[in-house]
Amino acid sequence: MRALFTYEMTVAPPVGIEPTTYGLEVRRSIHLSYGSNLFAQIYRPPNYRLAVRSRLLVLFAAFCFATTGTSRALGPDSATSLGVAAVRFIVGAVALFAITSLTRKSDVTNFGAPLYIWVVAGFGQAMYGATFFAAVHETGVAIGTVVALGSAPILTGLLSALLFRSWPTRNWIVATTAAIAGMAAIVLAGSETNVSLIGITYALGAGLGYAVFALASKNIVASGVTSELAMARVFGIAAIFLSPALLVVDTEWIFTAGGISLGLWLGVITVALAYWAYASGLKNLEPRETTMITLAEPVVATILGAVVLDERPAALAWVGIVVVITALAYESLSSTNKAST
User: Fold this and answer.
1) pLDDT, mean of residues 68-80
2) Residue 46: is its pLDDT beyond 80?
């Protein structure tokens, strides 16, 4: 399995972000398309207005990402997790390819990394999408999102250690221990609130898919393919993996008003528009700035679950959620502080 990810791992240019941090936010893989250039790492926005615009773009992307679970919960009752994931990836890939074509900045014949790296990245994204939607359906948006995002850096670090002998730092160990404690608190609160063990299992599966996607996409973007084109292709491959599910699950919901709205929101807003805004904002911001801004995602997802869906986790579960988010912030800040020194 190690061979699957070794392509260019030893020759990729320094990017300022350690592989073990990539599970925190998969979108941070986009840093590679800018961070591999020294000028991009030390560049500062020439004016205040541009800096504000860049921060708002990244914040907008984080808000879009955060609505994924709530959108799924508000969608048609007959929609299945596999069906929703397949529709999201199909619509998202088409929209991303459209954006890529309109910007005319990408060489569509440039594949950079070998085909199997693309397939692995697509499989990881497909696994993440399917299991994430199942997680939020079984155990709620707040808990499902936080456990998925909280487990991703843990699993990424473990995969990095196993595949690349990239041993974790002390800060990573501290953050991981705290995240595990937080997730344990969430699980222990199961008898007092709507915490489903099968839902937690799905969320951990989403974290694993996130980690596989992140490690593979590190090689893809480092190979010179633009982030927009890379994400379009990966989502397209994920759609191919999940499309057969549409032959065996209920698809009538897709052609309803609610189904069309859900598909367009998930594909166009939470995939295409969100990734475009995130990539655009990154060009004029430092990694530590974008990291702090994107931490809004689990926070907003938790708030949406409580306000929009009336989710009411027990006090112990709320403590666990706060601990996991704090661990994410600590690990992320320690990584970006190290990158800037």
Assistant:
1) 92
2) no
Residues found in the chain? 341
pLDDT digit string, tens, across residues 120-163: 999 999 999 999 999 998 888 888 888 888 888 788 888 888 87
Across all residues in the chain, what is the average pLDDT?
Answer: 78
pLDDT at 40 over 60: no
Q: DSSP letters of 222-274?
A: HTT--HHHHHHHHHHHHHHHHGGGGGTS--GGGGSHHHHHHHHIIIIIIIIIH
Reading the block at residue 35, the tokens are: 């961070």
pLDDT-above-90 percentage for the chain = 30
Distance in angstroms between the alpha carbons of the first and the last residue of the chain: 33
What are the tokens at 22?
A: 């990539």
Q: For residue 132, with 0-12 CB atoms within 10 Å meaning exposed, 13-18 middle and 19 or more buried, which class applies?
A: buried
Q: For the chain, how long is the longest CA-to-CA vector?
A: 54
Helix axes 315-340, 287-294, angle to 10 degrees: 170
Q: Cα 102 to the chain's mean position, in Å?
A: 25
pTM confidence score: 0.77
| Distances from the Cα of 271 to the Cα of 104, 197, 232, 308, 336, angstroms | 19, 28, 9, 21, 25
Locate tokens 């480092």: which residue?
222
Contacts for 19 with CB less than 8 Å, ≥ 6 apart: 156, 160, 164, 166, 215, 218
Q: Mean of the pLDDT values across residues 289-295? A: 72
Residue (of 268, 273, 145) closest to 210 by Cα position: 145
Integer Cα distance of 61 and 269 in angstroms: 9
Chain-centroid distance of CA 51 in Å reads: 24
C-alpha–C-alpha distance, residues 68 and 145, integer Å: 9
Q: Half-sphere exposure of residue 290, counting CA atoms within 13 Å on the CB side?
A: 30
Residues 5, 212: Cα–Cα separation, whole Å: 9
